[in-house]
Design a protein that fits this description.
The protein is α+β, with helices and mostly antiparallel strands. It folds into 2 domains: about 1-30; about 30-195, NADH Oxidase (3-Layer(aba) Sandwich), CATH 3.40.109. About 35% of the residues lie in helices and about 20% in strands. It contains 6 helices and 7 strands; from the N terminus they run H-E-H-H-E-E-E-H-E-H-E-H-E. It has a 7-stranded antiparallel beta sheet with strand order 1-4-3-2-5-7-6. Helix 2 packs across helix 5 and helix 3 packs antiparallel against helix 5 (about 145-165). It is globular and about 45 Å long. The model is unreliable at about 15-30 (pLDDT under 50). It holds the Pfam family Nitroreductase.
Length: about 200
């Protein structure tokens, strides 16, 4: 076999191998989303954001960009100080709030320390919430839990007003995802959900 035929044979073999491996790689699920750095310098003035804050229930199907998702989750309950304290207050700095992001590509748990999302469920539940993104708030079962969730969803509402996103807080839908599906600790429960999207 001359050199030309040898190279052609090698090239053909590589093409065949690629044909087998590329589709497999394309369907491997991504279990971690490392979010881009949140933009802490933008947004509208606070008083204007308060004036613009309102509930909306009709959203387009447009997915929330990763940058908006990053900014939104950091605003919700991100770390804003070197000692690990958060953008929303909790009693005695307990930080006992879990935020799940329900999107078309599954349900994800927010890790503030790594500013990343970890997949906990493959299922698409967006149709149940009628929004491209719904934040599911689970809190410890104590007298402070609902107060903690309220502080977090208010931050999200203000970010949405500043970014031109619509949002609505609702109790309807707290049972769409079970504690087992969310892998919640025994003393946690979902207390409220907050749907987010582009206004229709």
């Amino acid at each position: 076999m001359n050199m030309s035929n040898f190279l052609k044979t090698i090239f053909l073999a590589l093409v065949i191998v690629a044909a087998f491996f590329v589709p497999v790689a394309a369907v491997v699920p991504v279990d971690v989303i490392t979010l881009p750095a949140s933009d802490k310098s933008g947004g509208m003035p606070l008083m204007r954001a308060l004036n613009e804050r309102k509930s909306l229930r009709a959203f387009t199907d447009e997915a929330i960009s990763q940058q908006d998702l990053s900014n939104l989750l950091w605003a919700a309950f991100g770390i804003n100080r070197a000692d690990g304290r958060r953008t929303a207050p909790t009693a005695r700095n307990s930080q006992q709030v879990r935020i799940y992001a329900a999107m078309a590509n599954g349900v994800w748990l927010y890790d503030a320390a790594k500013h990343a999302l970890y997949k906990v469920l493959e299922r698409d539940v967006t149709q149940s919430f009628h929004a491209p993104l719904t934040l599911v708030y689970a809190v410890a079962d104590d007298k402070y839990g609902p107060m903690h969730a309220g502080a977090v969803f208010q931050n999200v509402g203000l970010y949405c007003a500043s970014a031109g996103l619509g949002n609505v807080v609702k109790a309807q839908g707290v049972n769409v995802l079970t504690n087992d599906e969310l892998k919640l600790p025994a003393d946690y429960a979902v207390v409220i959900v907050q749907s987010v999207g582009r206004p229709r």
